[in-house]
Amino acid sequence: MLKKIISYVVLVFILTCCTLTSNEYSEKEDVFEDFKSKDLVISSSRLSSNIDIIFFEDTNVFQKSFLDGIKNGYFILRERQKRNSEINFIDLSKEKSFDCSKISTKTKKLIYLNSNLVDILKSCNLKNNNNVLVINGLNEKIKLNLNFIDPFYNYVDYLYSSDPKILRGESVVLTDRELKTENYFLIEKKSNIEKRISELFEINKSSNRKIELERIIQNKIYQTPRFRKDIKKIIIDTKEVSAERIIPAINFNLIFEPEIYTLPGQLDLWRFSKKEFKSNLKGFEYPILLNNNFLFDEEFSKKQIQEKLFYALGFDSLLFFGRGITTKFNGLLGEYTKDENKIFITPEKIGFQ
After folding, report:
1. Which pTM value belongs to this model?
2. Can you give the CATH number for the domain in which 325 is found?
3. What distance in Å separates the CA atoms of residue 46 and residue 18, rounded to the nearest whole number?
4. Does residue 166 surpass a pLDDT of 80?
5. What confidence score (pLDDT) does residue 65 get?
6. Domain count, the chain
7. Any alpha helices (H) in the chain, and if so which ranges?
8. Residue 44's domain spans which residues?
9. By C-alpha distance, which of 350, 336, 332 is closest to 287?
10. Looking at per-residue confidence, does 271 or 35 come out higher?
11. Which of 19, 246, 249, 263 is close enough to 155 for a disulfide, judged by CB 3.0 to 4.6 Å?
């Protein structure tokens, strides 16, 4: 089934050399000799100038994964030593006295934005150009007139626009957080998912009627529970509850008619069984999650989905920046394209004709 999901291509790199400086990220020198995958294509890239990686260190695991991804992207790019370019990690949390000169240089800047950096960036009034790229590590919209990538982008509207057959009135969005839409159904991380799906499709009402009727007639009744027929599409858009838990819960309730759509960050084939793929499953996914033969190291497969994605984003960001953010770039998360100051990532399509 996986062969139908992903086209077979060859990973190609044009690699050059650079120099890493500053803190723990200069201490490890992992070597990746077998960095190849027949199922994934990554655009060629090279570092032609120095890049400052600016961040404010905290305990957030996403930030750490992102920085680790940059580090490993660097070690890939340095394999062929044709040009010396410097990657400089600047941790502003270690600055005793800060002034804007640290981030106002002409050097290319890749900035990981957390709450500690928002006011700093605003006060320094950086001018936007193609040598600045901000990764918004906050799960909220921040008004900055700088090129940015939003890792928390919600693909629901993108799904509706991609397939005119998906009608909002016939769809339900399964989510584990409040959404600004009417057709969503909340499934919390600690909830009984099978029971919640039963409640959504009103199977529990059918079962309750059966129990009540058996009580009245004092006899056993054998019937197939009825469920709602108005829901034609099920869209899984969760962060804490993955599709590997939700899809079996749908099957458990014998609900096979509605088409199931998954949004990016759901189908982790490093842990998700291929057997769970059904013919009516469609949606989008980040290529790195569909390629469980794409190992960086032994620890990568153990990471949670969001950690994997931020790791891949760090890896992609360095190569994308090296290639030039005005050009299209195919990376571990999909195709990167620039629209004004926003970088949009187009993930892999699954099950679409």
Report:
1. 0.81
2. 3.40.50.2300
3. 9
4. yes
5. 94
6. 2
7. 2-5, 61-77, 115-124, 156-162, 193-200, 203-217, 243-252, 287-290, 305-323
8. 2-152+296-347
9. 332
10. 271
11. 263
